[in-house]
Design a protein that fits this description.
With 394 residues, the protein is α+β, with helices and mostly antiparallel strands. The protein folds into two domains: 219 residues, Up-down Bundle (Rhopdopsin 7-helix transmembrane proteins); 159 residues, Alpha-Beta Plaits (2-Layer Sandwich). 67% of the residues lie in helices and 10% in strands. The strands form two sheets. It has a five-stranded mixed sheet, sandwiched between helices. Strand 6, helix 13 and strand 7 form a beta-alpha-beta unit. The longest helix has 34 residues. The protein is elongated, with a radius of gyration of 31 Å.
């Protein structure tokens, strides 16, 4: 059975409107979406553009045809903006959008007024779409390299690449078909129109999949972060410790932990209030974070306690790192509302060798911390080396 272009175009219009409405409804129902609403608006604009092109044969002149193509390019740019929001790219895309839109308008004007050629007007739009989607595919590919959920990002990038190459294929097909019907000039061959319907559908589904994956990734990230300080929370830092101990056992290398505690932190809250205490906690996080190695991990262990995981660090290295952080806190002051608050920290360190149990390691570091506090605070105390789970019992 032959494919009817008119039916396929109507199907394209219906799918564009339907997916546009679906994306917008999803954005209202799901809190935290970034680009679904923009994608939905772009799909609605795409449907409107094809509607104008479909209606233009029924009215004199080419105003609806020009308006249809003029509507499609900004709609694709809006969808490009949606992907930009989903991927949370910090770079402005205004210049790119203005350049593409300006080039498209210049091409339409040239092939409408200077050298009238309806086929080249269509090609101008096709090239603009190819440029936009090609750029979007490249951005998505780069985003997938550092995203935890690469599959949806790569799926969107793949479909965008198909979209970017399809207009070029349409130009080549139209270039070889002299005397083609006007409908084929406007929409392309029936197989291309059908492929466009399928691609638009799969691309929109993939974009919603990407948005949902990003939301899930954001929820996971928030669940593993301390809301006040922004560093790992207790669950995340303990999980990191378990992973590092497993690696230490596999590689037969040491792994150390340090538990920091802010000395007399209750006095800060009692004297300056809890908001000041929160500022001190954030300040301590920043100072310690600037004092440790890039591959050490700092997390909030509870209240005014912080846990630091130091992979590959033996006793001497661990003491050096912890004491550097202690001295950085001692030598600086936290400024809260023009008030200088000086504090100190104490630390207990424990070092584990292959096979050490993480709970025993934490108990050992905690005992060392208590010894640091009992012996005057503002110091680093080392616990006994953890050789294996049985050695932690004492």
């Amino acid at each position: 059975m032959s494919l009817d272009i008119s039916t396929l175009v109507l199907l394209t219009i219906a799918i564009a409107y339907g997916l546009g409405v679906l994306s917008i409804v999803f954005s209202f129902l799901q809190v935290g979406t970034r680009g679904a609403r923009h994608w939905g608006a772009g799909m609605l604009g795409l449907g409107m553009g094809y509607t104008l092109i479909y209606l233009h044969p029924h009215l004199p002149g080419h105003a609806l045809l020009f308006a249809g193509w003029l509507c499609i390019v900004p709609s694709v740019l809006l969808m490009y903006r949606a992907l930009h929001l989903i991927c949370d790219s910090g770079h402005s895309q205004t210049l790119f959008s203005v350049a593409v839109m300006g080039g498209a308008i210049a091409g339409w004007s040239f092939f409408s007024l200077v050298v009238p050629n309806q086929l080249r007007q269509i090609d101008t739009t096709s090239v603009a779409i190819s440029v936009i989607t090609g750029r979007a595919a490249w951005n998505l590919w780069r985003y997938a390299q550092h995203s935890r959920y690469r599959v949806p990002a790569l799926a969107v990038a793949g479909w965008l690449l198909v979209v970017a190459t399809t207009p070029i294929v349409e130009i080549l097909v139209r270039g070889t078909g002299s005397g083609a019907p006007e409908s084929m000039m406007e929409y392309g061959p029936p197989t291309v129109v059908f492929a466009r319907v399928v691609i638009i559908t799969l691309l929109s589904i993939s974009v919603l999949w990407l948005e949902i994956s990003r939301l899930y990734e954001a929820i996971e990230y928030q669940a593993m972060r301390d809301e006040l300080t922004g560093i790992s929370n207790r669950r995340a830092i303990v999980a990191q410790l378990q992973r590092e101990l497993t690696r230490a056992t596999r590689e037969n290398s040491p792994c150390s932990v340090a538990i920091f505690d802010i000395d007399f932190f209750k006095r800060v809250n009692d004297t300056w209030g809890h908001p000041a205490g929160d500022q001190v906690l954030k300040w301590v996080t920043k100072v310690i974070g600037n004092s440790i190695r890039a591959y050490d991990t700092l997390g909030r262990y509870g209240g005014e306690e912080f846990l630091m995981v130091m992979p590959g660090a033996g006793q001497d290295v661990a003491i050096s790192i912890a004491d550097r952080a202690r001295m950085a806190i001692q030598d600086q002051a936290c400024m809260v509302d023009d008030v200088e608050i000086r504090i100190t920290i104490s630390a207990g360190i424990a070092t584990a060798s292959a096979g050490a149990d993480f709970e025993a390691l934490l108990r050992s570091a905690d005992h060392a911390l208590y010894r640091a506090k009992d012996s005057g605070r503002n110091r680093v105390v080392l616990a006994e080396t953890m050789q294996k789970p049985e050695s932690a019992a004492g």
